[in-house]
């Protein structure tokens, strides 16, 4: 996750409202790990989209999410994401 | 401490045809025995398919200390599991209703699929075998959309006979394609048997249920023929003819209606009959007309009467052309009982357009209130040292006799050696 890609990576701003922090997240990086790199330990467990522990409300922005049973389509429709398996495709505001 | 009579002694000393001794309604040890021998070893009615309408829906029902998860999986299959984590035993779902992806224990995030399989458990080491740590299954049967669970390893097999007999009666109302318009929980201040016995007679209806008496024919629930005056006798004859005619009409329309009674000769005991409704004859409402414009299933005739279905030990149901009212009784303590009532309408019915919720629920909301009071005064009276079991009416309390008889038989058959 930490090696630098050859071309300049696209980076997005992620605002975490409950932590009161704004971090940077590369387009090829899961939000959970970007937060970890920035010293923020968000609730998580399986880190692969199964358990739902990292479920968070996406206030604004879009992500590319690859869950594995940890979230329902209905929840996604209501704006929930799993930050352990979501990569940003825009700047994000997340309630976390 | 004064020595209480043992349960087998009490069973042996019970006078046939009489109310049970007070011990059965008040003693905490008998409550525990009731849970273990009756509620954990028989088929218990807990809810309806529309309690979990979509994949990922979870519904929790507690039966004493046992908590049961009822879930609908992505294959639309409804399954039941013990609501207990296989790690260190934490309760998994703490709300009565939830939507989940997988079932996750909040304690250390062990993660189970909706088929019960353990999918993920962190930090358990290389040798940890997930395959033998799935959720413990609970037997579940849907009888035309009514959900029954059994906590025993070997549940009574005659649920098959009940399902076979009842499915043709219930199917025309198409319960799986209804929705819960309202669900209410009432704690009655009495033993669960008090709640059930009160349901099993309408001896008390005349004096206590002004709302229910509008749609209900009192003659449908027994009477003493000798003491009727001439006008009453004529009414009773009129009612009998009405039943015969109505049964013929409904059965011709594809809705089985005739009585089936296995309340006292089966382990999974039940009774059913489709009964006429007074006046307009349509529904258990204050004007006896349908409360919901969208009729259930393929029913065309709003005047289908009310199909009543009673099960031992803990439920009763009324299926009408436009709605279903269904009641589940769960003991909470020796002198407290949970009554959960659900009103179901066609899943496409819209509140305020097709039905008015007050009108739909008024009769049974009022009746439940009155019954809860009756249960409480009966329970209170029975605590007195002056109480002694009184006789049942041979005409109006046959079903009370059935449930107390069934209860004593089943209790005796399932007592732990310690109690016996
Ligand atoms: S940490 Fe398990 S789903 Fe994200
Ligand atoms: S008790 Fe459930 S994960 Fe530990
Ligand atoms: Fe009543």
* Share of helical residues of chain A: 10-25%
Number of strands of chain B: 17
Catalogue the ligands. Answer: FE2/S2 (inorganic) cluster, fe (ii) ion
Pair with the biggest interface: A-B, 13 and 15 residues
CATH third-level topology of the largest domain in chain B: Naphthalene 1,2-dioxygenase Alpha Subunit, Chain A, domain 1
Strand content of chain B: 15-25%
Instruction: Look at the structure and name the CATH superfamily of the largest domain in chain B.
Output: Naphthalene 1,2-dioxygenase Alpha Subunit, Chain A, domain 1
Domain tally of chain B: 2
* Distance linking N and C termini of chain B: 20 Å
Give the strand order of the largest sheet of chain B, numbering strands 1, 2, ... along the chain.
1-10-9-4-3-2-5
Q: Tell me the series of helices and strands of chain B, N- to C-terminal.
A: HHHEEEEEEEEEEHEHHHEEEEEEHH
Question: Any idea what the radius of gyration of chain B is?
Answer: 23 Å
Number of helices of chain B: 9
Architecture of the largest domain in chain B, according to CATH?
Answer: Alpha-Beta Complex
Could you name the ranges of chain A where pLDDT drops below 50 across 5 or more consecutive residues?
none
**Quick check: average pLDDT of chain B?**
95
CATH class of the largest domain in chain B: Alpha Beta
Unreliable stretches covering 5 or more consecutive residues of chain B: none
Q: How much helical structure, as a percent, in the residues of chain B?
A: 25-40%
**Rough outline of chain A:** globular
Task: Report the CATH topology name of chain A.
Answer: Ubiquitin-like (UB roll)
């Amino acid at each position: 996750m930490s090696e630098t890609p050859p071309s300049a990576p696209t980076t997005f701003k992620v605002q975490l409202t409950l932590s009161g922090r704004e971090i940077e997240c590369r387009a090829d990086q899961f939000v959970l790990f970007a937060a970890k790199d920035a010293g923020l330990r968000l609730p998580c467990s399986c880190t692969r989209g199964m358990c739902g522990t990292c479920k968070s409300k996406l206030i604004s922005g879009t992500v590319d999410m690859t869950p594995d049973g940890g979230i329902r389509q209905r929840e996604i429709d209501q704006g929930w994401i799993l930050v352990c398996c979501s990569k940003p495709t825009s700047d994000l505001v997340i309630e976390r | 401490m004064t020595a209480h009579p043992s349960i087998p002694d009490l069973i042996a000393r019970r006078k046939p045809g009489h109310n049970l001794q007070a011990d059965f309604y008040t003693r905490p040890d008998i409550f525990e025995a009731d849970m273990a021998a009756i509620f954990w070893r028989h088929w218990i009615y807990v809810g309806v398919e529309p309690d979990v309408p979509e994949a990922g829906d979870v519904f929790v029902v507690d039966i004493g200390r046992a908590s049961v998860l009822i879930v609908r999986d992505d294959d639309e299959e409804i399954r039941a599991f013990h609501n207990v984590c296989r790690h260190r035993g934490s309760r998994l779902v703490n709300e009565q209703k939830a939507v989940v992806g997988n079932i996750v224990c909040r304690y250390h995030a062990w993660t189970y699929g909706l088929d019960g399989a353990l999918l993920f458990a962190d930090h358990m080491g290389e040798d940890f075998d997930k395959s033998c740590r799935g959720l413990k299954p609970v037997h579940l049967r849907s009888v035309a959309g009514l959900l029954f669970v059994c906590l025993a390893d070997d549940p009574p097999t005659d649920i098959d006979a009940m399902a076979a007999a009842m499915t043709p009666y219930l199917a025309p109302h198409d319960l799986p394609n209804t929705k819960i318009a309202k669900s209410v929980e009432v704690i009655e201040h009495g033993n669960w048997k008090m709640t059930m016995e009160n349901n099993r007679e309408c001896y008390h209806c005349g004096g206590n249920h002004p709302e229910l008496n509008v749609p209900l024919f009192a003659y449908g629930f027994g009477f003493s023929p000798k003491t009727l005056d001439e006008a009453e006798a004529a009414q009773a004859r009129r009612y009998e003819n009405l039943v015969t005619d109505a049964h013929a009409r409904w059965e011709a329309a594809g809705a089985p209606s005739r009585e089936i009674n296995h309340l006292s000769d089966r382990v999974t005991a039940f009774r059913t009959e489709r009964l006429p409704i007074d006046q307009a004859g349509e529904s258990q409402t204050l004007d006896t007309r349908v409360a919901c414009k969208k009729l259930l299933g393929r029913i065309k005739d709003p005047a289908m009467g009310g199909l009543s279905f009673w099960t031992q030990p803990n439920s009763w149901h009324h299926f009408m052309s436009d709605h279903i009212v269904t009641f589940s009784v769960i003991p909470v303590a020796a002198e407290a009982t949970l009554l959960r009532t659900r009103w179901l309408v066609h899943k496409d019915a819209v509140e305020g357009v097709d039905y008015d919720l007050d009108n739909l629920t008024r009769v049974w909301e009022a009746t439940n209130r009155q019954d809860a009071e009756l249960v409480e005064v009966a329970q209170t009276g029975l605590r007195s040292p002056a109480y002694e079991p009184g006789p049942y009416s041979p005409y109006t309390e046959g079903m009370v006799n059935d449930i107390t008889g069934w209860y004593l038989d089943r209790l005796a058959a399932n007592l732990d050696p310690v109690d016996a």
